TrEMBL record:
The keyword DNA-binding does not apply. PROSITE patterns: FAD_PCMH. Its EC number is 1.1.99.39. The keyword ATP-binding does not apply. It comes from the Eukaryota. This is D-2-hydroxyglutarate dehydrogenase. Belongs to the FAD-binding oxidoreductase/transferase type 4 family. It comes from Ostreobium quekettii. Transmembrane segments: none annotated. One of its GO terms (cellular component) is mitochondrion. Residues 68-247 form the FAD-binding PCMH-type domain. Its cofactor is FAD. GO terms for molecular function: (R)-2-hydroxyglutarate dehydrogenase activity; FAD binding. InterPro entries: FAD-bd_oxidored_4_C, FAD-bd_PCMH, FAD-bd_PCMH-like_sf, FAD-bd_PCMH_sub1, FAD-bd_PCMH_sub2, FAD-linked_Oxase-like_C, FAD-oxidored/transferase_4, Oxid_FAD_bind_N.
Length: 503
């Protein structure tokens, strides 16, 4: 699916809404001057792009959800690592705060300035450097769009090890920096496993060359892992080496409906048992999610005549033998039916039906934004208790305009809990009914308050719900070591009390 940003009119209405309020500007940071802009212009030379006009800056200042809006006066778009290094070394010297930005599809306010930080966008760093068809190793710059990489690999019989609804806009550097999960994590694992090497520019401009293409390397600490999921707070990822699997030639997608969440889990268990090595995705959505997608996303059709069951699932297999895989899926469906778990089900007969099934599942996020204000939560929970959070939230939040929806990567224990309010604007009483309840509920079950979207600005002060004090303290020390002046993505990820003074 090619993702288009929501029209500015829609997001404009929603801009605000930040749990915990916007942190005050840290006045240790210098303000951008004309001389700074002139320096950036010279550092970029002819290739790069500098954006300083108000209209052009809008897209850099506002996040995809329209919840967060900053006020940068300059976006710097370099084309090379050397340019990134020059810009960062200068900003560090001047104590100018910098926010790294990829495709700006992040959902926690990490990719946009909070105040007047310089935006360093990787959008002009989109070169594919090499691909080895024997090892499946891809080397590229960080600004490559995920979908473009996958199209490139498809022509060479390979696939990207991750896939997500924002693939038409998100960049691989952003994916690595958020440790994005997505719909194929069940099959290919997390980016901590697929990233073989990274090139990172540190806050002082030093280029840290961890750009190896080795499957095995046990020489000391695996430093690249620190930058995977650091959300731009430790360095700017400029290039990488990724292990890409062979592209499956047979993909079977089925869409099922069932009566209860325990039935969803039972079907998941049967899918693992019967589909084993070819299973590539197990996603679920509740009726409220399905209805929202169908109401607000023109062109998406319900794959089933049944639109009243409380739960829907998308089960995908990816393999190399169509007959074998189809047989397996049919056996699996027969087993699900004979266990009395299925209300209805459809197996896609062609790629257009399969892609419609995926659009239903992946369309929920955009549909919610179109419906009104969204309060978005992304939690990891023990499977057995996962959906109880949605049910409890419904009891806490009655009201005609409110719709509580639950969907996500059931195969990974990752629930996307979204509270949609058709009234369209942040309401304090709604926010207070959700937070801190949702975080406490998750902590009580030793879950994670961010399964895959990160902490960004939205949850920086909430890290302790999922991490012990010692871990937070060590994170603060790592930040201080790698970014002593604290210029990289300030106000994000770490709570204010562990961030060192700097500058
Ligand atoms: P941005 O949004 O630009 O940035 C994200 C964070 O990374 C920011 O903190 C930014 O400062 C930092 N950053 C970006 N580039 C760099 C860099 N080169 N170096 C250092 N730091 C950098 N996420 C999932 O995990 N799974 C999903 O299934 C999923 N589905 C989505 C569906 C939709 C419709 C949308 C809108 C979003 C979805 N997301 C999902 C969230 C988002 O797409 C991911 O977090 C994605 O990885 C962000 O990539 P980006 O290039 O847009 O990064
Ligand atoms: C997905 O899985 C994304 O579709 C977005 O992670 C989830 O919108 C959300 O809450
Ligand atoms: Zn997700």
């Amino acid at each position: 699916m090619l993702l288009r940003r929501t029209a500015p009119g829609v997001v404009g209405r929603l801009a605000r809404g930040l749990s915990g309020g916007r942190p005050p500007r840290d006045d240790k940071f210098a303000r951008v001057t004309q001389e700074d802009v002139q320096y950036f212009r010279e550092a970029l030379g002819a290739g790069g792009r500098l954006v300083t006009d108000r209209e052009g800056l809008q897209a850099f200042n506002r996040d995809w959800l329209g919840n967060f809006e900053g006020a940068t006066s300059v976006a710097v778009c370099p084309t090379s690592t050397q340019q990134v290094s020059k810009v960062l070394s200068y900003c560090n010297e001047r104590c100018l705060a910098v926010v790294p930005q990829g495709g700006n599809t992040g959902l926690v306010g990490g990719s946009v300035p909070v105040h007047d930080e310089v935006v360093l966008s990787t959008s002009a760093m989109d070169n594919i450097i090499s691909f080895d068809e024997v090892s499946g190793i891809l080397n590229c710059q960080s600004g490559c769009i995920l979908q473009a990489l996958d199209t490139y690999l498809a022509e060479r019989g390979h696939t990207m090890p991750l896939d997500l609804g924002a693939k038409g806009s998100c960049q691989i550097g952003g994916n690595v920096s958020t440790n994005a999960g997505g719909v194929r994590l069940l099959r290919y694992g997390s980016l901590h496993g697929s990233v073989l090497g990274l090139e990172v520019v540190l806050a002082n401009g030093e280029v840290l060359d961890l750009w190896q293409s080795l499957r095995k390397d046990n020489t000391g600490y695996d430093l690249k892992q620190l930058f995977i999921g650091a959300e731009g707070t430790l360095g700017i990822v400029t290039g990488m080496s990724l292990l890409c699997p062979a592209r499956p030639t047979s993909v079977q997608v089925s869409f099922l409906s069932c009566k209860s969440f325990p039935d969803v889990l039972h079907i998941f268990r049967l899918a693992k048992q019967h589909l084993g090595e070819v299973l590539s995705a197990v996603e679920f959505l509740d009726r409220e999610s399905l209805v929202t997608a169908l109401e607000h996303m023109p062109g998406i059709r319900n794959p089933l005549p049944d639109g009243t069951s409380p739960f829907y699932m998308l089960v995908e297999t990816s393999g190399s033998s169509e007959t074998h895989d189809k047989n397996k899926v049919e056996e699996f469906l027969a087993e699900v039916m004979s266990a009395g778990l299925l209300v209805d089900g459809a197996l896609a007969q062609d790629t257009s039906q399969a892609s419609n099934m995926w659009r239903v599942r992946e369309g929920v996020t955009e549909a919610l934004v179109r419906r009104g204000k969204v309060y978005k939560y992304d939690v990891s929970l023990p499977l057995a208790e996962m959906y109880a959070l949605v049910e409890e939230m419904r009891e806490r939040l009655p009201g005609d305009s409110i719709r509580v929806v639950g969907y996500g990567h059931v195969g990974d224990g990752n629930l996307h809990l979204n509270i949609s309010d058709a009234r369209g604007k942040e309401r304090q009483e709604v926010r207070e009914a959700i937070e801190p309840f949702v975080y406490e509920w998750t902590r009580e079950r030793r879950g994670s308050i961010s399964a895959e979207h990160g902490l960004g600005l939205m949850k920086a002060e909430c890290i302790r719900y999922s991490k012990p004090e010692a871990a937070v303290r060590i994170m603060g020390a790592v930040k201080k070591m790698l970014d002593p002046k604290g210029i990289l993505n300030p106000y994000k990820v770490l709570p204010r009390d562990v961030v060192h003074e700097g500058c």
